[in-house]
């Protein structure tokens, strides 16, 4: 079992003819992902590595029975690509694009809530179910199939934790990068709920960071509804207020200081979630759960 | 990008939000001339982006040329909460009977903008929010429809704004929302919005944050970016296209990926050091970007040692190592000790390739950070 | 029994301080309608005939427990007034205003579909349940309580038919003016469904007119779902294509000629609904049903 | 308000939709001069608002000055489907390889705009819609969000537009939607949208209907209203603020309420007469409005008799009667017979008050219409 993606996912890549799109499509296919189509306006009829390209997502989805898309479209055009994916409609949309204007995402999010589509991202590394399929830019080789779920706002931090897990022989059911933007589709609670309902996921590593209140909400959710043990990590303890720490969403608000690492760590601890001081400590906790 | 008060007020004025008469000055003489032109009383306000300027001595109210000169001499060149004051805004003082707070920001949990009004203006609104959240009326705005006029009225009436000025305040709020929408702002605040004895409404302060990711479609605002930057190094980072934040410590940090770089900062702190900066060089590690990143960090005179933490994902560790070697070799002399740690795909091959004459290599993140903290302590002594 | 409005309705009048609003509020109160509040921005704290006025609909609804509004706000500000009523929220909103720009109504209609509010109008005479309450500008004195439901796109044509009914001693359960605009809240099908579910309504008079396809949809609905007998009337048989016949919605499209009286009459006849050539004939049919 | 082709093309050009070079001319000499300026071949097109101008001889393609003069002489002043041609548009002929149809209209059932594209341009699109609805690709647009770029592309690709020009056609569609939105249009159509051998996209015709109810916020478009009116009487009705439509019969009709007036027209037809007009005087019946309404109807030289049908609702019948009396008495002579029927509140009192020296009073709607039809027949003989 796994969440979000597996062997059966039929994937359309939006932006497949661009540099990043082309490169990562090849990586996804090599990993075993069933990429059935690409969608790029004006490029319909072409092929990329034998994968047929369509002018519209709608057409790609209809002709190739796609249910999932991965979006590599540049930020200025990404909101349009997301609207298009929601309208197709698809079951799952994974938006890799970093740097989508916040107000664009606000509108996409408004539309998203009227649909049954699950959006992951934007500004995320994607989703991987080791040994089955990966959507996005995660390096497949560091993952190993197993029974730990992973959800994270950050890309390389995820890799760091996964690398540590794998090196200790602990595999993963699915790893979900939910993205570092202030407005994202799937949040911690959504991903935790899916893992809770996945019988194969025996423990969960959750990597949060400063900004927003998603981790606090996740803590409330864990305390109230979850049986699967969770270990946490919060990046940005040393971040000054009012500064954007790389991710658009990683910012402690000035003055009042909401979105601090302290608040998140306290909330998680209150919910019985141990929070590691270092990535290794997170893996220690996970090992303890198994 | 956070605009300076004078920049934000210019934008407000263009949008039709009433602001006091004002002039920017960067010398004492300019400030006095401006004060004479505007007419007393005027406020002389330090143009640095920090809260609580007034309490910190960055704002003075003056009644004549002599006081204006004295105030300008005090403020121009002062160090205000760590920031150097280069410019002051000389502004007509507003004779107010009431101070309100109005603002528009993004509620990221809801993914929707929220308009805010409070009659508790003129004080730190975040303290008000913490102590008495009811004192701030919040109205969520549907991003698909934008602000409807009734929403501005509802916010203003529910906040308890006097009926005599409610219509004008609602109108200011609508203009601010429109401005928020039109300029891809992430935050707009007026605190205080002053109500004069005549019932006029005047924006006495102006905060405006623009979404960096949307600057590409606002060339007029993007032009303000250099002037808005608080720090030469931050301006340099804009040029190089790095996500960079300057801090006050002495351990320089370079890494890839926001979460991992933040974690590196946190570990520096955890192991007893003080981070000097956040610097994310992003995906890959081409020699040129590494060179630029090192240039940034070495340009910070506080830096005593550097830790370089790269997780190779799709980009293989051996390629990253080649980029780092090339970059390091381009320096005549490496001014401070650099610790490198590579992880992920082909990390071991990478570490074998690294030129250990120029850098110290460590295998784990924890070891690398500890080593850099150690070097920094040695260098600082 | 009745539909939409009765003695229990607690009504807020939006635009109560305007000429029309003030006049018709008095008329509604005289008829027995329970008008509990007015809402006019900037006029909060005033009174109109002893009825308290609030600055916002939200406040009026909360303070006076209102569940229904009647909107007399001028067309330029009417969409905003409707958004405000939908947001309060209220159960029923009756929009009398004529001349609301179509694109404004298109947005209001979009929002309406996300709410549970029933909107009647705009550009309608309102709703009356004879002997209980009236909302809008209908002349109460020509109505009589009874068991015929009436639904119409037109004001004075409604009065004409009601007058004929009343003069023959046939009373009405409720009369609903759904309005002459191209985009309206409650349409024929909605009103017919309510009448069908009202045990006291034994027959229904339905007055349509040229433009759009509401009557055709109503015919399909009647044919498929209704037991209560319906008699119809369609105004505009002689209207030329492409000309707006008074009502913004009363226009036969040019060329192809959709929205014609002929199409509507045919559809109704096919559904077994007799259509009168004159208003008197409609009343003949109704009399026959009873 | 339906714009003339030349007005709509002006609006299109301002919005950035490519249109052919053109000039408006109201005399033969002006037309020939315009043709010489533009360069042959040019099309000379009657500016009247009626479909099928080409087939009816209202459009001629000419290759030189002589032909231009002849065509202009033929068209200017002609009677085209009942409308007098005062002006022609002289327009550069477009050498096309393909004709498309694009449009935006309101789908009133859904309460949403719908964008349409078809490769079957250049013919009567309503016939296409009736015969082969699949040939028109329809894309509903969410009124809250407006048209998203992908929607324009989807409509264009699904319609089967050639990939070479699809991007440009999608861009025209977006511009038209923006125009629709910005100008409160109820309908915009380009038929044909021509594709030239060079792959250029040109709007060869232009239909634009503006929502009358929204003209108040488009003063620039409202200014075009007088010129857009097809008929002097319709222009007069605009002035008086009446809903008025001119028809070809001889029974003038005045009433209150659109549905009741339409019904009166239908009854005139039902009883063997022919309605001359639709005229809704609206609520109440103040003497001045009645006078203006009678002036309108009497100004139509086709009118042989008038039926006046008022249902008094809130306004009482006796008050209406007084207004009618006052209006009638202001005429030196009533030029045609007028039949009045009052119904509703205080109708009987009203009928008692009416001055039967000036009008014929009937009790029921049916009787009143029959009487007016009778009078008209007598007068016509």
Structure description:
- The complex is a heterotetramer, with 2 copies of chain A (290 residues) and 2 copies of chain B (381 residues).
- Chain A is built from 9 helices and 13 strands.
- Chain A has 290 residues and is of the alpha/beta class.
- The model of chain A has no long low-confidence stretch (mean pLDDT 94).
- Chain B has 381 residues and is α+β, with helices and mostly antiparallel strands.
- Chain B folds into 3 domains: 72 residues, ATP-grasp fold, A domain (Dna Ligase, domain 1), CATH 3.30.1490; 127 residues, D-amino Acid Aminotransferase, Chain A, domain 1 (2-Layer Sandwich), CATH 3.30.470.20; 149 residues, Rossmann fold, CATH 3.40.50.261.
- Chain B is built from 14 helices and 18 strands.
- In chain B, helix 2 packs antiparallel against helix 3 and helix 5 crosses helix 6.
- The interface between C and D is large, with 70 and 57 residues.
H/E element string of chain A?
A: EHEEEHEHEHEEEEHEHEHEHH
CATH topology of the largest domain in chain B: Rossmann fold
Find the count of extended strands of chain B (DSSP E, 2+ residues).
Answer: 18
* Protein chain pair with the most extensive contact, residues per chain: A-B, 70 and 57 residues
- Assign the CATH architecture of the largest domain in chain A: 3-Layer(aba) Sandwich
| Major sheet details of chain A | 7 strands, mixed
Distance N to C terminus of chain B: 37 Å
Mean pLDDT of chain A: 94
The overall pLDDT of chain B, averaged over residues, is 91
